[in-house]
Write a structure and sequence with these properties.
12 strands
């Protein structure tokens, strides 16, 4: 399984949104790989040319090398893949780990702040960190200033700490963080990166790191932020960003926090603020789940069509032209359930929906989804929203 995720990263690039698009469409990296092998038109010509140079055997060897170097790997399919990351527009297809990956089961809270830390913020950090209990794990970077001081206080207080890197785990960034990172691992911490272990940091990788730092946790606490602080970018990816109130509203070091709270961000007013934010998110998630369940069992009301006068001709809007896939296999090669599905879809005067297909074929929904996806890849049918038409 893991080798297919390595193939995605090698074939399309570690910062390529197309990898998450393929995963969301096909569900697993193996299905995305098989789909690409059948129909290279799934991606643009540039990515197709790049992927052609990467074999699955090369990906398998790269995965073996990663394991040999002592790194772990959490894929999109792994049960311990952080659920909140799936909600990102461009979630990482895999995470490489070093350390105690069980920390991901704790209540994660992101704590970030500016590099140019003020004496007032320095004094506040120990008071804030010591309030976290064993059920929490702090997520941050090891950037100078607020982040490094947060890590030191967490480790000395026995609070779990997770670092997200803007490069591969075999790299050291920032340069002077090697000793602190070793101390973190010795004390049961965890390192995470979406990049292959030997990948070096580049300008674009820092924003990608920010989306993981903010997106992996339910709550983000910004300790200090100037007007253009990178901590503000992290807060944008969080469901519940909290800002430590400025110690001096006239200082430029706090301008970003002031602007955020002016726009409606919540202030951090003690540990109660964090507990309340977690409770609010959990309540919203339960309500959303219950609403989804209600929608599944809710029957759509049937509306009676008004009678048309005999002398009035019924006018209909012109149908939109549907661009069909070009069949990539001979249509007469379809057999079994694939042939049954093709004939049913071809014989329908209108695009046919899943409910009607299930009713007429009695194929289980899970198996039906796989068959339809496979036929779409082969170009013999085309999806039109949630309905299908057949190529002829």
């Amino acid at each position: 399984m893991e080798k297919y995720y390595i193939w995605l990263l090698l074939a399309f690039g570690e910062s390529e949104p197309k990898t998450s698009e393929l995963l969301k469409r096909f569900g697993t990296a193996e299905k995305a790989y098989n789909a690409f092998c059948k129909n290279v038109a799934l991606v643009g010509p540039e990515l197709t040319a790049k992927a052609a140079s990467v074999s699955i055997e090369k990906a398998a060897k790269a995965y073996e090398s990663i394991l040999a170097d002592g790194y772990g790997m959490i894929t999109w399919e792994s049960p311990n893949y952080p659920e909140h990351l799936r909600r990102l527009a461009d979630p990482p297809c895999a995470l490489f780990t070093l350390g105690d990956a069980s920390l991901l089961r704790k209540k994660l809270i992101t704590v970030v702040g500016a590099r140019a830390i003020t004496p007032q913020t320095s004094a506040a950090i120990p008071q804030i960190i010591t309030q976290f209990g064993n059920e929490y794990a702090i997520v941050s970077s090891l950037s100078e200033g607020c982040d490094q001081l947060t890590c030191l206080n967490a480790l000395h207080s026995g609070v779990s700490f997770i670092e997200i890197l803007p490069c591969g785990l075999a790299q050291t960034y920032p340069t002077g963080s090697r000793t602190l990172r070793r101390f973190l691992l010795t004390n049961g911490g965890l390192l995470i990166s979406e990049f292959l272990p030997k990948t070096k940091p580049n300008p674009g990788s820092f924003l990608r790191r920010s989306r993981i730092i903010g997106g992996i946790s339910r709550v983000t606490l910004v300790l200090q932020a100037g007007e253009k602080s990178g901590s503000l970018a992290t807060a944008e990816f969080s469901e519940a960003p909290l800002f430590l109130p400025p110690f001096d509203c006239t200082r430029s070091e706090y301008k970003g926090a002031i602007n955020a709270m002016r726009d409606g961000a919540k202030p951090y007013l003690g540990h109660y603020s964090i507990e309340k934010a977690f409770a609010r998110i959990e309540t919203n998630e339960r309500a959303a789940a219950e609403n989804i369940q209600k929608q599944k069992f809710r029957k759509k009301p049937t509306k009676e069509k008004p009678a048309q006068p005999a002398e009035t001709k019924k006018t209909t809007a012109p149908k939109k032209q549907v661009i069909l896939n070009k069949p990539l296999i001979p249509l007469d090669s379809l057999e079994g359930e694939r042939a049954v599905l093709y004939k049913l879809i071809l014989g329908s005067a209108e695009p046919i929906g899943l409910e009607e297909i299930i009713a007429k074929t009695e194929i289980p929904p899970a198996k039906l989804s796989e068959l339809l996806l496979d036929m779409e890849i082969d170009g013999v049918i085309t999806a039109v929203g949630t309905r299908y038409v057949a190529a002829s």
